[in-house]
Every structure is written in C-alpha cells, then in structure tokens.
Amino acid sequence: MLEVELCSLKMKNPMMLASGILGSHASSLIRISKHAGAVVAKSVGLEAREGYKNPVVINYAHGLINAVGLSSPGARAFAEKLNSFKTEGRCPLIVSVFASTPEEFASLTSFFPMADAFELNLSCPHAENAGMAVGSNPELVREIVAEVKRSTEKPVFAKLSPNVLDIVEIGKAAEEGGVDAVVAVNTVRGMSIDITSRKPKLSNISGGVSGEAIKPIALKCVWDLYKELEIPVIGVGGITTWKDVVEFILAGATAVQIGSALFYSYRMLYSLMESLRAYTRQTGESLAELVGKAHE
Amino acid sequence: MYCVKVEKVVRHNKDTATLIFDSILPSYPGQFVMLNLFGYEEIPLSLSSPRSITVKAVGETTKALVNVNPGAIVGIKGPSGNPFTPTDTKALLVAGGIGIAPLLYLHDYLIAEGANVHVLYGARTADELVCLERLKSYEVATDDGSKGFYGSVVELAELKPLRKYERIYACGPEPMLRAFHRLLKERRLLDKAEFSLERLMRCGMGVCGSCVLPEGFRVCVEGPVFNAAKLEW
Fold it and tell me: What is this structure's pTM?
C-alpha cells in the first residue's frame, strides 16, 4: 500500500531522505535506507570544499536554520565513500550535485556509477556561484538540465528554491530542459540573533530555514507545481508527522523528502512508515492513488 | 543556544586550562557541549564537571579558549550526547592526555555514588598531567618517563588485573583507545568498557552527519560514549 514508482525508481514507501541530512557517510545512508523509499546523499561538487566555520546549524522552536556551505570531499573522494552503498544499501541512492555551469554539472554524473538517479541542487540559499545563485535563472536552469540529461540515462531531479518570485516558472524551465521530476522545496532564507552576545548565531550570518516552520510554504509550492507541470513533483519542507506526508501527497507529491525531522529521531522514517501503513489500512487506498487528490 | 559567563580560569600548564562557568549545566559525566567562543568557532568539548570544561590548546579556537579572560561570555548548545553508565562498585578510569577531561567529571560522580575508583592516566610528559590533585587513587604513565610508569598508559594497563574491575571507562587519543580496545578484546572484557570518542562535529545535534562512524552511529547522539563492544575496531 505504501509502494510508489518514481521515474522508474521502485520505492518501498514514498519517503526519501532529504539531501544534506546524515548524507556524508555511506554508513548513515545505509542505516537509514532500511526504512526509506530512497536516500539522497549530501550535495557534492567537483572539488573538495570546506564549508563555513561552525556554528553552521542552529535549532529554534519551529525548526532548524543552517548554513553549512556545501562542505564536501569532492566528487572523486565522495564516490569512493558511497561505493559500499551499492552492496549494503536497501533502497535507491540518489546523488545530489552542485556546480556553477551546465558543463560542470554534466561532468559530475560520470563519477557516480552507483547512483540510481541524480538530484540537481539549484537551490542552496547560502552559497556563492552555486545552488540558488544558478537556480533562480530559468534560462540557465533549462540549459543545466539539458546538459545533465545528455550526460546520463538515469533519472534527473531538479531541487528548487522557494526564495524566488515564481517557482512555477523555474519548474517549467526545468521541465522544458527534460528533467524527470522536480523537488520542492529547499530551505527558506532566514537568520537568528543571540540577544546576550548580540550577534548572529550562524557564522555565515544567515542560512536556510527548514523544519515545521516552512511546511505551509512548501505545500503551496507543491500545489502550484503539480497544477502546472506534467512531470512528478517530490514534496519536501517541514514534514514531521505522517499527516504531513499525506498532505503533501494530496497536494500533488508523488514522493516526499524528510530531513530536519530526523533531529527528533534516527528512527523517524520507521515510525512514519508504520503510521502510514495504519492509515492506508484504514482508508483502503494506496498512497499512490492519493497523489493530487486535493485538486479534484 | 544560550550564553554562560566564564567565572574563573584555572591554568594547569602552558597549554591547558579549566574554564569554570557561572552556572551549573544540568548534565551527566561523559556529556559534551557545543561551545561557541564568539569570533572563533563552535567546537564540541566534554564537561570536566557540571560547570566546567578542561581544554588543551591545539587549534585556533582552543588556543583562544585557554587564554580567555574571566567574565567572557560563551555560547553553549547542550549538554548533549550519551553519558557514561555509572556504577557504585569497582571502576577503572583510563585516560590519555586531555582525555582526562570527561573522566574527571566521572571520577567525582562515581565517588559520590560510593564507587571504588582507580585512575590510570598517561601523557607525553609529567608537565602534561593535569588535575592530579582531584584524583583519589591513581597511577600515571609518561612517554618520556619523567613521572610514574615509563611508557604508555595502555602498557601500564596491561600490567593490571583488569578483570577485577566491574566497569572500565576510557578516553584519549584514538590510537591509544584502539590499543586499549585490542587489550580488552584479548582479555574478553570489551563489554565492561565504555569509550568516549571524538570526531569533527558540525551541528552537534544529530542531523548533519559529519561525525558518523563506519558502524553508522553518530558520535554526537549515540555517542560520544560507546560501549567498547559496539566498536568494530
């Protein structure tokens, strides 16, 4: 009742681990893969990158704010780390990539033969010349997607930012470029200030807000994208309970991604899966049948 | 994150100091805090008592911390992580270098619980051994033989009847812990032992994945204290 098929990926449930959460090591991805429909590894670029100085993540009453700064060991080293997922992973592996140009994006796919699909990070809100900086321009998004699609036969997803005037315009550009699905949304720009030291809490001053606070924002993006696009939408942003998962599916998400909620428990996906199973048993409908139902 | 004031700084030697805060952090021995020295970095540090950290200058931030002036305000996340499992019987504490920090807290806690505590404490030189006055029963080892046993703390532990201790707790540099792990494995005592580990940490709250071990555990949540039998070393 929970199984979904997303662009030829067979998933045991619609819940994917969102990029950037526990995704730097194969060991944590393998552990989470036991209960996840798919896992997305942390975004990787061509070269190694330090990221920002600590503090890079803070929590507050309604979620997390982070500015990790795309820290990454670089494509070659990360691919070596991910190799063990091939034999021990229990779900599809999606590799998230970031870059500044279409050519650079396309050159990344060949490093990851163990990937079942790719996610394009067009939306990190706090990196120079990457993420949102390239993902806010529809022309460039179209070119990036087209170039990456030429480099690989595997499904390619575009992860979009909510920090734009019109997310549907970016989603359409990605669709025209030939993307297989869109992922909505990445974090919302935000910040926090400590009133004792009177300084911003993050070393980068501002970062991206995730967690429960952004759920209504993300849900509206999914709703709009589902209405205007032909390709599947993957919903992400603040999903914490099984009801949130159902809401996103009703809004039009074929699958969802969960990240910040793992703050509460490593076994979050297991507990959501059990609750969703009970829900489908009660309604007698599979989750796949519910996609976009709220639009009818 | 919240702020505490550094009330007092006790300098132990040229590069190690204990920073005592103006308030008690509700915690258990073995837990750590993410401490943000504003203008520097936020770093994970084990508590050396409910209201102190004991830190050695190894990088830019720790160097600044050791030289911090009383009255300074620092940011704190935590205390968090899994603490040591206490005992009120016979306990052996094995420390290497600045690994003494969490064991100092544990030492005081176990004694208050009525345990019989013995400490084996190794460092490179006599000068690097700190807070000995806080320890009730101890033996030291130095790499250069300048004090106590001439050799490593693991070599010293090898000479001891480890089996007679109900619980064994260790913290120190990873090569030392790995050597001690081998010794405990040979003597089939791994499940009696708990190790406090150190890793580069970013978020310190279980989401970023920086401190994940090959076994899949996060040092910041499932650790920093692990049962030695769970480590595939």
Answer: 0.92
